[in-house]
Known about the structure:
The structure holds two protein chains of two kinds.
Chain A: H1 2-26, H2 29-54, H3 63-79, H4 85-107, H5 112-132, H6 134-137, E1 143-144, E2 150-151, E3 156-157, H7 162-185, H8 187-197, H9 199-204, H10 209-235, E4 237-238, H11 245-258, H12 265-283, H13 287-301, H14 305-319
Antiparallel strand pairs in A: 1-4, 2-3
Chain B: H1 2-32, H2 39-56, H3 60-87, H4 91-113, E1 129-132, E2 135-138, H5 139-161, H6 163-173, H7 175-180, H8 185-207, H9 217-232, H10 237-257, H11 262-276
Helix pairs in contact in B: 1-5, 1-8, 1-9, 1-10, 2-3, 2-4, 2-8, 2-9, 3-4, 3-8, 5-6, 9-10, 9-11, 10-11
Amino acid sequence: MECRHTGRLLGLVLAALLLLGSLPYLLPGYQLRLFTEIIIFSLFAVSYNLLLGYAGLISFGHAMFFGIGAFAVANFCNHISGIPLLAAVALGTGLTTVMGFLVGCLLLRVKGTPFALLTLAFNALFYAIATKWYPVTGGDDGLIIEPHKVNLGIAVIDPSKGPDFYYLTLIVLGAAILACWYFTRTAMGRTVVLMRENEDRLRFLGYNTMLARLILFTISAGLAGLAGCFYTIFYAFVSIDALSIDMTTTVLLMTFIGGTGNFAGPILGVGAYTYLQNLLSELTDSWPLIMGVLFIIMVLFTPGGLVGIFKSLAQRFARRPGSADQ
Amino acid sequence: MNEIAVFFLHGLAYAGLLFLVSSGLTLVFGMMNVLNFAHASFYMLGAYFAYSLLQIIGNFWLALLVSPLLLLIIGAVVERFLLRKVHVLGHVHELLLTFGLAYIIHEAVKWVWGTDPHALAVSGFLAGTVNIIGITYPVYRLFVFGVSVALGLFMWLVLFKTKIGIIVRAAVEDSSMVAALGIKVPMVFMGVFAVGAALSGLAGVTAGPLMSVDPGMAGAILVDAFVVIVVGGMGSLGGAVMASVIIGELQSFGVLLFPKFSLALIYMLMAVVLVIRPEGLFGEKQ
């Protein structure tokens, strides 16, 4: 049973890899760009779900880390001449991780609702600093960057070319998403879930829950920063929108629409949100209003998100006697 | 000397406004344990309603009365049909709901009234100036402070000196016992939330003439109100009074003394309070 399951999974993964690898040949340029954006936001949403879904920590300030990563990579690329692109990304991610640790030290002193409130306040603080700190953020104008080519020895990747950047994003961010998935399976990842369910018992068993929470918060911040780095390179431009509360709202909506109770939920949510946004923004300028109403409806009636809907549909079909699925 | 007096009065006026906003926020949090992210959006709606009412009837006093009443109804509807439904799902869903509401109201306001800032003009003696402690000062700013003092006293009287106050506070402590005594607890919570919304509506109308009415006004005040209730202690009315005065004056003198870092000052205050007393100056330990 277990063996058959693994074999099936391996087949699925291989098929998925083949499909993802051949996408640049299947999709027109515009669709490929959309798909690249989906990968970037998927990492952002997955990192957010580590807090919301796995640890039950509700943050209204996740865009601050996305934005720090986005601005860090822009500054490293523009001010350090000849820096390899991936080194700039690594530095940007590292810097965000450090910031995540520092902010986490301060914010994790409180729990629950006060924590939610403070994350929003800190997001607003970083945004306020960004609007004023002209040399680093370009203020309201934003920053334009010229990403260097990545020389891998066997091939040269040009980030300004759609398919090249797609492969770079797929490999680096795909690996990061897989690392997140692996993390949720480790002892540490499971501790976090237990902590959400019954913290007192874990502490009684001798776990340092404060430390576990801080580590998770730091990792989540670093991953959001990595997504932010790719966001800047993708557009070859970054503005203060990257660390605005609107960006926090976007990732929250994406994650929740997909479903927080499942690892794949946020990725599904990003895809659904991005395509829906594309569709709606052609029809009306008030598309965020529709998104908001959709979000409220989901909070009220389907707390499990899209994944929850699919699961209950699957259950309904599986239960019906004599149906084609059986 | 005169300059200091002017900035002191500016600080008091802003403190008054902060108290008007944060009193409703802290009331709802203290009584229902719900942090209402849409509170500042109700405040913005209050200002926009007042703007439209002024266009139609042209009387500021009537707007000051009607706008909070409209928010009272909106608050009751939101509690009855939205918030109560997600209460069973836990506080994360309550937060998500109010956050989503704030997002919807923000977009709806842009849709209905547009993104251009509007001016809410007062007339009569409120638009004039008065001579106090040797300086000429706008009456309206003193009026804002006066409204907040009156409201603070009124809330204190209702909460601690009347039977309604006793019922509300008892419903927080032990809702099943209060229900057993024949009081409809869900009605009490609906009332508290509606009054919280009405208070933010009042704050919105009052703020209108001080600053422009635009879609960004909710975000601007929300963070300041959050800082007030973090510094004062979440759910504490006395804490909200003290923190409003401290932050109002800090903001005002900050502009005078360190124009570049005035914004950072209140965040620094919040960070210091968070490190020394995470539960706030007047808050109870969790």
